[in-house]
Amino acid sequence: MAPAIEAAPLNELRAVLGNQIAVDAYRAGTQPFPDGTVLVKLAWKQTPSTEFAPATVPGAATTVQVMVKDQKKYAATGGWGFGRFIDGKPVDAAQHETCWTCHEARAKAQDYVFTRFAP
């Protein structure tokens, strides 16, 4: 759905993918997003290309992050459930509070979502 480059301090390349509900909502400009929306962020270390010096390419995977919209189940966090995986293992649920804190503070006007649609 949308590529992104995260500058310092994370130095990551990211891609955000969405299920069909998410894509349809983005295309229609629907906010808040409907229940059933799923967004997944994949991130890799930004690494210099060995084939083309000015370019960067994905290096080692750093994290997979997931947002799931269910307004009843996740009412306390704006209707969104958060998940994060590092090295293929889920991160302790208590750490997801930092996800909500950041989204609440910086993306409330966009239904707590940072990503914009890239058709």
Automatic annotation (TrEMBL):
Residues 5-115 form the Cytochrome P460 domain. InterPro entries: Cytochrome_P460, Cytochrome_P460_sp. CDD domains: cyt_P460_Mc-like. Gene3D superfamilies: Cytochrome P460. Signal peptide: none annotated. Pfam families: Cytochrome_P460. This is Cytochrome P460 domain-containing protein. It comes from Azorhizobium oxalatiphilum.
